[in-house]
């Protein structure tokens, strides 16, 4: 709830009530009561939905069910599994795993304050995804309360519903209570690095080569790319800086020859490489290096987002962008009065080995990388809001020739209502919802609609981008 964009005087109705259940029966009661009184439910596990759909509704009246009391995590080292309740954050999960074992981890995102309920149900990309796939690829069971108030596990919900909640978004199908996950082997020593290159340091050629290398390189290495404006070495001028940020599941001794062979253009040297434990790499990527591990238990970000405004969007790329294309993107980045930052996240490895229909998350073989666009600002008021929203939408429009087409794909966990929304009330057609649904889910959208129609025929669990019924 810390994003100013959704606070008064924004024209968004407030919830009638916020329910913070202590036991599962409280959630069942909230569902029954809401159904009886014609109220919608919003379920919040961490509160990081980019469009606030876990805690706001453009259709009053509504109720928030906040799972803040559902944070229990049970680690079973012997079987390398864990049960994690939906209101726990991924930081709490990482901490709980690290306390039990130095050689177990989990594949999930880099922001510790995200709640597992939403993160897992939307996919869950992270720094180990090229080695182990997404969070959803490592979920073996779940507990969920359906529209009739029944508590179901994988066996009683059936494989169709279990398939749907692993990437189709949990909020369309019920209230996720907990996930049963397979913990993953990590070495005692991993290696991280951050190497910055500006246009003056030949970053165009290096970024061009990165596109050809990052998805094919050893799957124990994930090499992410952050792009944005920075001050140039020439006084008073700005340049584009490419920051190459990596996690390698192994030591620097094996990483260096691997990089020299596959990506010598980056010029990685031993002094760039920092060896650490896997859990310390979690702190490193969250910009928390040097902090005690207990900081992962904080439910709010150490960076205070009070007074911040933000809008995010996403894309996928299947063909490398030419050097000429990159140069035109740099010009656009430098010309835009509002700074739009990009994060390029490589695919390949394990991500490509899993079929596009194995889970609702379809961005598999053939995907080179995903793009996250973000714009932040601190100035209050409608004119600043409109200016920054226009800036990111214009930039997104400018990127059209370089990204996927028919459909232009997007990542559900970077929620974007610009892609299209459901009608108010209960009247959205399959065709209308396809406008945004095909972007997130591709060929899996139709199956998600069939599952939704079967398990929630009255479309009780709905929001601005929930799966519609037939």
From TrEMBL:
The UniProt record lists the keyword Glycoprotein: yes
Keywords, comma-separated and alphabetical: FAD, Flavoprotein, Glycoprotein, Signal
Cofactor(s) needed for function: FAD
Domain FAD-binding PCMH-type: 11-186
GO-annotated molecular function: FAD binding; oxidoreductase activity
A Pfam short name: BBE
UniProt key word Flavoprotein: yes
InterPro entries associated with the record: BBE (IPR012951), FAD-bd_PCMH (IPR016166), FAD-bd_PCMH-like_sf (IPR036318), FAD-bd_PCMH_sub1 (IPR016167), FAD-bd_PCMH_sub2 (IPR016169), Oxid_FAD_bind_N (IPR006094)
Protein family membership: Belongs to the oxygen-dependent FAD-linked oxidoreductase family.
Official protein name in the record: FAD-binding PCMH-type domain-containing protein
Source organism of the structure: Rhododendron griersonianum
